[in-house]
Each structure stands twice: as structure tokens, then as C-alpha cells.
Amino acid sequence: MKVTIHTEDSPKGEITIYRLENSHGAAVTLSSLGAGIVGIEVPDANGKLADVVLGYKNPADYLYDGPCAGKTPGRYANRIARGQLTIDGREYQLAVNNGPNHLHGGPEGFQNQIWDCEMHGSEYVVFTLQSPDGDENYPGNLTARVQYGWNDDNQLYIALSAVTDAATVVNLTNHTYFNLSGESSGSVLDHMLYLNADTYLPTDDTLIPTGEMAPVKGTPMDFTEFKKIGAEIKADFPALRYGKGYDNCWVLNPSEQNSMLKQAATLADPKSRRTLTVFTSQPAVQVYTGNWLNGSPIGKSGRSYNDYDGVAIECQGMPDAPNHTNFPSQELQPDGEYMHYIVFAFSTINDEE
Description:
This protein is mainly β. The chain has one domain (about 1-350): Beta-galactosidase, Chain A, domain 5, CATH 2.70.98. Helix content is about 5%, strand content about 35%. The protein has helices spanning about 240-245, 350, and strands at about 1-10, 15-20, 25-30, 35-45, 50, 80, 85, 90-95, 100-105, 115-120, 125-130, 140-150, 155-165, 170, 175-180, 190-195, 200, 215, 225-230, 245-250, 260-270, 275-280, 285-290, 310-315, 330, 340-350. The strands form six sheets. It has a nine-stranded antiparallel beta sheet with strand order 10-11-12-13-26-22-21-16-19.
């Protein structure tokens, strides 16, 4: 593995950038700002490399960006209704920073911090963040850790972990936006998407789950067979009206092999014939079709992104789980460890024939 490391300045201090290039020339680029993915270069069916991750020309522009591009949001990714939760009988009021709700850990969430970082050998980068008790009003001193590993099979392994000294809640994910035609190629609405999910979480008009787990069959939320992302995105359906496109959580089907990792999604681009298959240990996946990318910072190719130029496939716990006893718990106790995995596996349609 060829590793290159350099630093960039930002208003919060020095950012460390790692580039891991495998023996085939495919590469992943990682940043200590938000423990984020800022580039993935993989071949199309003809062997031509392109960067398939949306990102910015200026590394400092990832700080406080609306799209949360490529980063690790936390302490609680996604939404918590009205910023209110109760842990061990005590009520906590978190920042309200997304309409009436709390989003991605608040304005100073993990995505807007510079993480400590260390290279392990030539294949793994580890980012670590100390989140003190009271950080964004979450209880407990929490240590979060994100490990990335890249291999010769064009697979990116992500391990998300956390420990705490007091009861708290944790929900970590990766918020990369993918465009398998190349990051500057325009809309992803012609990409084909499969989700290993028979049910999804209906929401109110602020995108907070109602608590129901509803079947996707017969609705625009059905991706149990490959379907163009844009095929029904303008349908007159509550979830699509509320979010101006897909910004919803699907409940993943259990693994048939009873293994730790299960397939969450496959994204395929008919133009480049690149595919991305996502595996995870998480219970759910949020799919966000970049419905509000207009006005984002200047991208790597010198222009701002437009709505629907990328799709985020965010493996995670369920939004607002602390307020829904029927959802898997996201509470973390001092004697436990939060530990989840995500794998982004890239290939081409030729590889799979």
C-alpha cells in the first residue's frame, strides 16, 4: 500500500490528510476533520479511474458544511425529536439545529471537530476523539474511534467504536455522498439502487419517525429489486414530499447466515458500470439523495454541487431511537462498548458477470 500524508490549515487548526493507494492504483483519501472520507478513486468497467465521492476543493470547507460531506457525525447521527431525551430517568435538552429537532450531534458535533489520528502499518488509519461530559449537553466522557482500512480488492472497511464513563447515547455512521459516474458528473437519479429492507420508518413532516415500521411493498420506498433512484422520487407520497426526495431510514432485513455483517445496499451506475455494495452490522440505513446540495462549497472540480448530485447511504441506528422503545436501543453504559462496522465494496458489472 502506498501511503502519502500531508497537512492543511483550517480555522480550527491543522488538518491531516491521508491517501492510501493500493497495488492497482485505486485510492481512498481521508481527513482528520470529521474523521471523513474526502475521496475514493476506483476504476470503471474499462479500467479508467475516477473519484466517486463528492467533496470540496478547499479542505477547510468541510468545517460546518451543511451537507456533512464524507464525515462522521455524532454523538448522535440523524435526528432526535425536539432535542429531548431521557437517560436513566434524567431528562436532557440538546441543541435544536434542524427545524424543531436535533441533528447530527448539534452545531459542534463530531463532524466539525479535528480528530486525533494515527497510521497503523500501511493499511489502516485510526481517528480518535475525546468528547467531554456535557459536550453539546450529552452526558458522559466519551471516547469515539473510527478505523479505516483499504485493500487491493477496492474494499473500504470502517470500524466505529465508543466507550463512556457514564450512561449516554451514541449513533455513529459515515456520511459520504457517492456518484459512481464521477463526483462532477451531475445527477445520480439514473443510478440503480437495491436495499435489503422490507420495511421503512414513516416520519412526520419534520422527518422524525412516527414509531411505525411500515412495509415498503406497493410504495415508492420499495427498493427490494433494483430501481432507478429517480423513478418515483417525485411521487405524491408523504416521505418524498417531506424531504424533497429520499431522506428516510430503512430497517435492514436480518442476515440469513446469522453473520455479523449483512448486505445493506447495492448502488450501480449504468454509465460507468461501477457498483458499490454496502455491508454493515448496523440495524438500519438512511438513504439521502442530496436533496439540498445546492449552494454547497465549491467542489473538487471547481463548481458547487446541485441537488441530487450524490447519494448518501448511511448505515446507522434508527433516528430518534431514544424516544422509541420499540427501536433498537442506542444507549451506551460505562461497562459496555459501542462497536459497529461498515464496508464499502467497489467493483464493476464486468467483475460480477
